[in-house]
Amino acid sequence: MTNSGVRWVAKLTADSAADIEALLGLPLGLDVWERHDDGLVVAASEAQLLELERRRLVRVDRLATQAEFEARARGGADSGGEGGPA
Amino acid sequence: MTVIARVTSQDPQLMLAPLLSAPLGLDVWEVKPDHMVIQASEAQIERLEQMGYGVEQLHLTDRYLSTFATAEATAAYHSAEQLEQDLRALAEQHSDIAELREIGRSLENRPIWALRLGNRHGTDRKVLLLGCHHAREWISVEVPYLLAEHLLDEADADPVQQWLQRGEIWVAPMVNPDGHEFSRTDNRLWRKNRRPNADGSFGVDPNRNYGYMWGILNVNTSSHVPQDETYVGPRAFSEPEVRAARNLVAVELFSGVLTYHSYSQLILYPWGYTSNPMVDPIDRGGMQQLAEKMKGLIHSVHGRTYTPEQASTLYPTAGDTTDWTYGEYGIWSLTIELRPSSQAEGGFILPPSQIRPTFEENLPAAFEFIAQTLDPDTVETRLQP
């Protein structure tokens, strides 16, 4: 059974920049974290992602649940080091 | 689900001590003369209340533990309270050139502070550095705070000495203290302020609540749905945190505004509400050139690339800070999206070890922004077509 209340960090990929532009123009309530030419990284509920998939607006790649993302980011808190590009 | 709660008794006949030996299965964490702190289930809490004890829920246990587990990381960043203490200390240590001003109060009545740096009043050369419109962007507090500290440390040497003799630099590192505190205690990824909305949800996005082209979009990144992360609010300037920034700008009439956010490593110039470029060629060219110069300066420190682009290229935003400061007053205004570059590096949860290098690489870029927007020679130069 799907838990529609789970929040995900997900990558949304489209065929063109215009598709991403169009997606951003929709009132879907996505929490947009990153924008790239061919996609977005968002935080969204499972229900929101299912709706995107149902409407075939974008391809959805669930990277991690938000809780997993937080735990992972915290786990890496001491490994950043200084400076240079990652 | 269990909670951490404080148990008290107002009834002299109802002692706390017997609870320690009563067969209630309580997990007692702390015993004081006037209260106990326990971890208990909802059923246990209900039973204590039936017995006549006062029970105040302090934390959900899971959240408390996750917060506790990251206490070291959290401690490296300022809380609202710690920021106030440190800003007070800076102002007191440099009382000849620094003054701490409360520019407003948040919804939950926390003071919003701005540090004014400068030798004299009445100048029309002023720059404003802002931080933390968005709660979860903790690094956006640290960079302007460290800039203020550095400016004061360097106040006796040029170019800072000249800047502070001729003009003023204002630094308000935490525009949204309520949201920031909530992100420390309850939800690390909280973005908005803590406005209770009519539909039962919480929060207005402070960086969608400014009054230039407010509300003209209804999209993911500028939403009219209260529960959304980018909820624009019921009307422009509905939020006291945003009114505090508005009133400061309206009174001081800055010549430059730099507002820090995270993440993505970007340097954004107006507009956010439209993909059309700024009409004025001097402003458009000047801000683009300045952003390019800042990109080079940032890159020269630790090799990180911050990409300059029009704000709407990132995504459409109506009602953000820089659209308002530029659209309403013609102030040269940039948004800096700080480290990291992607969620793979932590996104909003930037490791504390990255605070110092993020500040270091942004220092020469901030100096360039201050020089170009504050220095009269540069200002005159930039106005040449």
Order of helices and strands of chain B: EHEEHEHHHEEEHHEHHEEHEHHEHH
Average pLDDT of chain A works out at: 82
Low-confidence residue ranges of chain B: 379-385
Structural class of chain B: alpha/beta
Structural class of chain A: alpha+beta
Strand content of chain A: 25-35%
Overall number of strands of chain A? 4
Number of discrete helical segments of chain B:
14
Strand order in space, largest sheet of chain A: 2-3-1-4
Query: Shape of chain A from CA axes?
Result: globular
Largest sheet of chain B: 8 strands, mixed
- Major sheet of chain A, described briefly? 4 strands, antiparallel
The best one-word shape of chain B is globular
Quaternary state of the chains = heterodimer
* Distance between the ends of chain B: 66 Å
* Fraction in helix of chain B: 25-40%
> N- to C-terminal separation of chain A?
38 Å
Strand content of chain B: 15-25%
Task: Outline the structure in words.
The complex is a heterodimer of chains A (86) and B (385). Chain A has 86 residues and is an alpha+beta fold. Chain A has helices spanning 17-24, 46-54, 66-75; strands at residues 7-13, 31-36, 39-45, 59-65. Chain A has 3 helices and 4 strands; from the N terminus they run βαββαβα. In chain A, strands 2-3-1-4 form a 4-stranded antiparallel beta sheet. Residues 78-86 of chain A have low confidence and may be disordered. Chain B has 385 residues and is an alpha/beta fold. Chain B has 14 helices and 12 strands. Chain B has helices spanning 17-21, 42-51, 61-69, 71-75, 80-93, 139-153, 160-166, 177-185, 240-252, 281-302, 311-314, 321-329, 355-374, 376-382, and strands at 2-8, 27-31, 36-41, 54-60, 98-105, 111-117, 126-131, 168-172, 256-262, 266-269, 307-310, 332-338. In chain B, the strands form 2 sheets. Chain B has an 8-stranded mixed beta sheet, with helices on both faces. The longest helix of chain B has 22 residues, at 281-302. Chain B is globular.
